[in-house]
């Protein structure tokens, strides 16, 4: 997948690169996602953000306009994203909910989300989509067996 990661700190670069293993085309940006930096998302499928990146409705509209289909937040909480509006736009959203909250663990969770999406699978516990997802429902059904 083609992705741009915003608000990347210096120490995160190597962690994301190692977790990625040259699978996805990642662009790493130190700046936050904003109207001034949204142009980096052009031609990408995914934006990867931090909890400080505020994704309000108008910014989500523009992300959709430039081709973004998915958002991964490198945070547990998603209150910085208008999830309802993202859902209305058909943009899938995932977070990094697993117990390993180290920088390495978050990098691995982020890439895990990309890997699952690329294979057409639901991201499971990381799914923050507000719409009913047939893939997620199928996966939930499989887990219950």
Using brief descriptors, characterize the structure shown.
145 residues; alpha/beta; Rossmann fold; 5 helices; 37% helix; D-lactate dehydrogenase; NAD; D-lactate dehydrogenase (NAD+) activity; NAD binding
Map the helices and strands.
Blueprint (H helix, E strand, L loop, with lengths): L1 E4 L4 H11 L4 E4 L17 E4 L7 H9 L4 E4 L9 H7 L2 E3 L8 H16 L15 H11 L1
Parallel strand pairs: 1-2, 1-3, 3-4, 4-5
Helix pairs in contact: 1-4
Keywords: NAD
GO molecular function: D-lactate dehydrogenase (NAD+) activity; NAD binding
Pfam families: 2-Hacid_dh
Order of helices and strands: EHEEHEHEHH
Which band does the percent of strand residues land in? 5-15%
CATH topology: Rossmann fold
- Give a count of the beta strands, DSSP E runs of length 2 or more: 5
> How can the largest sheet be summarized?
5 strands, parallel
First-residue to last-residue Cα separation: 31 Å
User: How much helicity do the residues have?
Assistant: 25-40%
**Secondary-structure arrangement, i.e. CATH architecture:** 3-Layer(aba) Sandwich
Quickly give the structural class: alpha/beta
Number of domains: 1
- What is the count of DSSP helices, taking H or I runs of 4+ residues? 5
The rounded Rg comes to 14 Å
Low-pLDDT residue intervals, each spanning 5 or more residues: 137-145
CATH class bucket? Alpha Beta
Fourth-level CATH superfamily: NAD(P)-binding Rossmann-like Domain
Mass-distribution shape: globular
The residue-averaged pLDDT reads 91
Order of adjacent strands in the largest pleated sheet = 2-1-3-4-5
Domain D-isomer specific 2-hydroxyacid dehydrogenase catalytic: 9-101
InterPro entries: D-isomer_2_OHA_DH_cat_dom, D-LDH-like
Protein name: D-lactate dehydrogenase
Pfam families: 2-Hacid_dh
């Amino acid at each position: 997948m083609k992705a741009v990661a915003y608000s990347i700190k210096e120490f995160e670069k190597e962690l994301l690169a190692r977790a990625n293993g040259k699978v996805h085309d990642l662009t790493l940006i130190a700046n936050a996602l904003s109207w001034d930096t949204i142009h980096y998302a052009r031609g990408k499928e995914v934006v990867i953000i931090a909890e400080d990146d505020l994704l309000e409705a108008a910014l989500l509209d523009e992300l959709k306009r430039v081709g973004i289909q998915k958002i991964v937040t490198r945070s547990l909480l998603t209150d910085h994203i208008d999830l309802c509006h993202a859902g209305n736009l058909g943009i899938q959203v995932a977070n990094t909910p697993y117990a390993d909250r180290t920088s390495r663990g978050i990098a691995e969770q982020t890439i895990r989300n990309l890997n699952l999406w690329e294979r057409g699978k639901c991201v499971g516990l990381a799914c923050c989509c507000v719409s009913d997802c047939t893939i997620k429902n199928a996966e939930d059904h499989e887990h219950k067996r």
